[in-house]
Amino acid sequence: MTERHSQPAATARDEAAPEIQFRNVSKRFGTLTAVDHLNLEIGKGELVALLGKTGCGKSTMFNMIAGLMEPTEGAVTVMGRVPFREFDWFRGKMAIVFQNDRLLPWRTAVRNVELGLEMLGISAGERRARALRWLETLGLKGHENDYPYALSGGMRQRVSIARAFATDAELLLCDEPFSALDEMTSARLRTEFARLVRDTGKTAVFITHSINEAFDIGDRIVVLKRPAEIAHDIQITPDTPDHERERIRAVIHHSLSA
Amino acid sequence: MTDVTPSAHPYANPVFGAARGFFWIAAPFVLIALAWQIASLFFPPFLFPSLIDVFARVFQILTTWSQFSSVLATALRILAGLAGAFSIGVILGLLIANFRVADRLLTPTLTFFQGIPALSWVVFAIIWFHGVEFRILFIMIMTTLPAFTFQVVGALRGMNKDLLEMVMSFRPTRPKYFTAMVLPAVLPEILTAWKVNLGNASRVVVVAELVGSSGGVGYELLQQQQLFDMAGALAWTLQLVFFVLLFQWILSLVERVAFRYRAISERS
Predict the structure, then answer these.
(1) Nearest CB to B170: which of A105, A106, A115?
(2) B264 within domain boundaries
């Protein structure tokens, strides 16, 4: 098992600088500490699975990266900037796939995929072409003009993935996007998702509470204990042998059960 | 062998289905008309005039410009009043939904206004203002404004937070946020508000015209009352009912197009 150790960050943005950086970050809600003195760095092009039990602060970390929450202490920087304060700067640079599909019910599948592109001011023709391409990539050809109510749960989630990829954002944030789907659909989608992320060279943070999902998706698995502190930070490579994977799986399982 | 296909069932026939639908729409009105016509055989015309006389008067109003213009004047007053109240209601609703101070100041004020009877607003308007049209517009706005405002506030506050967060994650500009999220999300409640307020407005406008106008359906109703002309009173009332039904139908058409994305349960 390759354990990584997050280092304090450099302040200037350069190629070697981390894409996402948590520096001694704490987040408290009244007396509840959701994140406690967390240090974490995620490099450009990494596909990181943040793994932890429900209530361990994963979603709080997610919201701080997305700029929807501000840390109580410490600093969160993404691409060298503070997402909460420089919210608009991240337009087109960050896309999110949520736990549920969150499709706008009044828009067809293709119009839902176009949403992010509209925010970027891309022309109608270009928007439509890109949206159709992504729907086709995700196996939704023929369903472009269907409203969300007419699509299955898996199809809806694929539309939401297409919506995130269509903006061609550098950073993808995914908050347990397949947890509401059946195991077969979930397994198929996460394989597709991981392939797309690797093919496009994006940085992706994938939140999950499933060990299997973390192994299927992540090149790196960050295991969080409660409140969000790093229990393990593990690098997985295609060369990692099966017996080593099983050993890591057992360690993580033990850590999450504690 | 008995061949039973869905089309063999009489209810599956589209012509039969349409006729059945029409029958149930018409049935209550036919019953009321029948009851009225029977009553007209036993009571004097100034109490229950024959429906033939009533519809002759309806036809006369529709084909005589001097009379039909009164119907149009009332319809325009209703629409102008509703448009005015809606415009102000949207502004007040946005203020209430976005600013706590506005909420604390405006919500109790509008609740207080809601308790004032329409007739009181008529009296206030007559005392405060000279122009007939302005008086009516004022009355219409003051009586429908609280409902519009509260409905706009309810629609804004009831927007799906998950969808709001999703749209915000794309960092939209304010105009984009409004057109992509806010407007489609609040539209169903706005249309319902128009439907509800249309009924209220049609009642209020008649009161306003009855007291403070020299034209319109309310004024004409006052004339019929002074002449003890029940057929005329009914005919003028029906003009207003027709207008409300027509506008409700237009709103329903808008709904049908705007909300085609809604799933319809086969059981419903």
Answers:
(1) A115
(2) no
